[in-house]
Amino acid sequence: MIVQGAVLREMGLPKPYAESRPLRIESVSLADPGPGELLVRVHAAGLCHSDLSVIDGSRPRVMPMLLGHEATGEVVRSESAEFAPGDTVGFAFVPACGICGPCAEGRAALCEPGAAANTAGTLLGGPQRLDGVHHHLGVSGFADHAVVSARSAVKIDPSLPPEIAALFGCAVMTGVGAVVNTARVQPGQSAVVFGLGGVGLSALLGAVLAGAHPIVAVDVVPAKLALALELGATTAIDARGNDVVEQVKETTAGGAHYAFETVGSAAVLTQAYEATRRGGTTVTVGLPHPSQLLSIPAVSLVAEERTLKGSYLGSAVPSRDIPRYIALYQAGRLPVDKLLTSTVALGDLNEAFDQLAAGTSIRQVLVL
Prior knowledge:
Helices cover 30% and strands 25% of the residues. It is α/β, with parallel strands linked by helices and 368 residues long. The two termini are 17 Å apart. 52% of the residues are buried.
């Protein structure tokens, strides 16, 4: 079949994207699903910094590529016994094979064949169903239809509005998961979140859910800081011109038990580490350019029993965590709808990514 999708053919074009037009809406031939795959009618797809980092070249990928990895839709055709036409699904941006070493240990986010497929721009196991165009993280959700591995899909409640359902595949799973899966924050422990985009605010929601106190939010955009306070932060710190580390330490009686870095910057990660107390844990979720290096006092890891951890996909098991987080949203305990800035059309993606790059939006969602 022929699909309409947003194709990136060259990374690093200059901003504003409204003028350079890195994403072109093209007609692309999409092959039928193979064994263990699904054809999905995409209903909505979120705009994420992981998409932006491919557009601006800070996260190099094979070109050309049909972008979009945080999405939801309805199964049209299934070549998997686990799914049937009519099922509503959310996508996970790491397909989990279920049999490699990390999968066998319950660490689906680190699936080795899934990582290899994502790097190559293919589906799990190596097939490429887009003619002459690579898949983005096994999803390519910026199109009216997608063929995905069944290992990239999770059945979800069909009553959920698509523009909300899409957010659970990346922002919510990554941010909330960093708190509850990676860090395992306990009630009464302090937490600070550096960076208040979709993932950062999801981490803040996770900290509220976990009963953390106090909760400190750090960013450079006043509107995001105001939203963080509305969502449950006890303190908001404007990082512009302030000694952020010292303010965090004052607010948390010497440093946070847990610090979460969601910006994708080695410099911000250094701040997050410095703002963590003796015996504390710093969790990094952001994806900096591969050339960025981190420098910390090596002795602090031992003498202060500090922990520095990475969290990919929120250390999630998507088939477990996506339905669980949706249920918490429906119960009023994860107000994910507060993250939705606006909905956009396929032809408006370049302008929408200008807004994301400028920090004037939290989560914009493409509705198809």
